[in-house]
Specification:
The protein has helices spanning 16-29, 41-47, 103-119, 159-165, 187-194, 211-225, 237-247, 275-279, 290-301, 315-318, 321-340, 356-364; strands at residues 2-3, 9-12, 59-68, 71-81, 91-99, 124-127, 129-130, 136-137, 139-142, 169-180, 201-205, 256-261, 264-273, 305-313, 345-352, 368-379. Strands 1, 2, 3, 4, 5, 6, 9, 10, 11, 12, 13, 14, 15 and 16 form a 14-stranded mixed beta sheet that branches. It is α+β, with helices and mostly antiparallel strands. The protein is globular, with a radius of gyration of 21 Å. It has twelve helices and 16 strands.
Length: 380
């Protein structure tokens, strides 16, 4: 434990009990926010440990709690991802930031995380990244009036000012787009899509009987399609497989589509049911009755919202006429399935502000920005 100013002590997380406290900090802080959705404790416990998250195999990670008068008042993480190309440029990440509206708490947390990064050779702190750039990225700065979708953060309104007060400046904005399932693609695009696939183009649904092979195919497309994006970190098959295994019970093959061109996997789109809609009132607990409620809501009642966390077209095809139409063919296929299943809307996230290709697809498809997340940076 390290005592800092303002009566704040910083405690490095080293035990399961301390990790549980770390997970609960934002749950307590968000208790008065009607749009905050408590995460499932069991999912967080798995995602934030080396045993459950393959990210730890290629990253150095440390968590801390801020404590004052025996009470947890904040938390932060620092991590260095050795697969992230920016690491070679001296960039380290902070993440998991949540704290009471007190500058002393934020300053103590950031001073600790920055010292840890600096000791390991980092020259810039960038975040929040929770924990990988392939997981939750950015701090919510606009869009607090609606609940977050699954695997998207919902941060306190005071957090941006406090982070800026600790010396951080905007590095990059990230957008979440929302679509109405009832709305078709714009007429000219829809007419082209509905003409049928071009020669050599095949769209197909996820084959659950070949699930592991399908995950490998998705990983290959993802790493190729996103390779030119700012801050992109290649995802390992172990990471994709771990996420897929976690989501296997909720993945609907009718909402996961692949596109092939001349027999080669060329693109994909995944729409996941918005689990946050189903767990919102569970308080992070699955026992004793949460499991039954979750299964019933997902499998019987059904949710009305979903999120597209993964979508991509291989770069080889993206500049061709057939490849340029693939995103809209995938969107139409997924939207038609979602409509039949009773979905009302879905989110496309996250999209970098300077990812002009994806933003044009979202705009052309009628999607609208409804949440903005921000990455901050500071020279160390």
């Amino acid at each position: 434990m390290t005592a800092l100013g303002g009566g704040v002590s910083i405690v490095p997380v080293g035990s399961k009990a301390e990790l549980d406290r770390f997970i609960r900090v934002p749950m307590r802080l968000g208790a008065g926010d009607q749009n905050y959705v408590p995460p499932l404790m069991i999912e967080r416990q798995e995602s934030l440990t080396a045993k459950g998250n393959p990210f730890f195999a290629h990253a150095d990670v440390q968590f801390w709690l801020a404590v004052r008068d025996g009470r947890d008042v904040g938390r932060i993480s620092a991590q260095i991802d050795h697969l992230n190309p920016q690491t070679k440029d001296g960039v380290g990440h902070f993440g998991m930031i949540a704290a009471e509206d007190d500058p002393a708490v934020f300053e103590a947390l950031f001073a600790t995380a920055e010292a840890w990064l600096r000791e390991r050779g980092c020259r810039t702190a960038l975040g929040p990244v929770n924990l990988s750039t392939n997981e939750e990225v950015g701090l919510l700065v606009e869009g607090h009036d609606t609940p977050p979708m699954f695997m998207m953060s919902h941060d306190a309104r005071h957090a941006p000012a406090r982070i800026e007060g600790a010396g951080y400046a905007r590095a990059k904005d990230i957008y979440a787009y929302v679509c109405s399932v009832a709305d078709d693609l714009p007429g000219p695009i829809l007419r082209r899509v509905r003409k049928g696939a071009a020669d050599g183009v095949v769209l197909r649904r996820l084959d659950m009987k070949r699930f592991d092979a399908e995950v490998r195919t998705l990983t290959g497309i993802l790493n190729d399609a996103w390779s030119g994006n700012w801050g992109f970190t290649p995802t390992t098959e172990a990471e994709t497989q771990a996420l897929a295994n976690t989501l296997k019970l909720v993945i609907d093959p009718r909402l996961t589509w692949f596109a092939e061109i001349d027999g080669e996997a060329a693109g994909f789109m995944v729409l996941l049911p918005n689990i946050n809609e189903a767990i919102r009132d569970l308080g992070g607990k699955l026992f004793p009755f949460g499991w039954a409620k979750l299964v019933w809501r997902l499998k019987v009642k059904g949710v009305k919202t979903g999120r597209v966390p993964l979508m991509g077209v291989k770069r080889t095809f993206a500049s061709t006429l057939r490849g340029q139409l693939l995103p809209f063919q995938l969107i139409d296929a997924v939207a038609q399935s979602a409509r039949k299943l009773g979905y009302a809307r879905y989110e496309l996230s996250w999209v970098l502000e300077d990812n002009t290709a994806m933003r044009r697809i979202c705009d052309a498809g009628g999607a609208k920005v409804y949440k903005t997340y921000r990455l901050y940076e500071k020279a160390l």
